What does this fold into?
Amino acid sequence: MSAFRSRLLIATLVVSVAVNLLIVGGLIGRTLNDGPAASMPPHLGWLIRDTKPDVRDMLRERLRATAPQMRELRGNMRRAQRAFNELASEDPLDEAAIEAALARIRTSNLEFQEAMHRQMTDIIRELDGEDRRKAIRYLQARTRVDDRRGRHGGPRGRDRDRAREWRAEGPRDTEQSDPTP
It folds into this structure.
């Protein structure tokens, strides 16, 4: 194998590991810093946080019922990532095994995303128009803050409080539609 191809493979592996660590770190950080209550499964608790109490209780039970499946899917992602990490640190490098490990990472990530998207669809179906709009405003506020800061994860401190107020009240006019300073 040429030196260029070896360097390209190593660079690709490093980028892949970085992206996967970013995803897992974001999930952990979201849960630890401003995630749902400890009794709420961390994956979609944000979606029902601002709903009416009776709807929130019903949806919370649905999320709890699927928590073991989601835990298993997250575990699959972590195991696939650990397997890749071990293979990537071996000498000599087994390219076929690394490619297979990366394929397992992609597969486990896709399975997790598909399950979360099914849950989101089920939850959104149960929300009335007002609660759906709150969820969308929350996503928009968070995206604006993330885009402005060029990082992943929710807003912190004063920006987090402004995003929450904005999410609850909605934009008043175009001058105030951005929740960040």
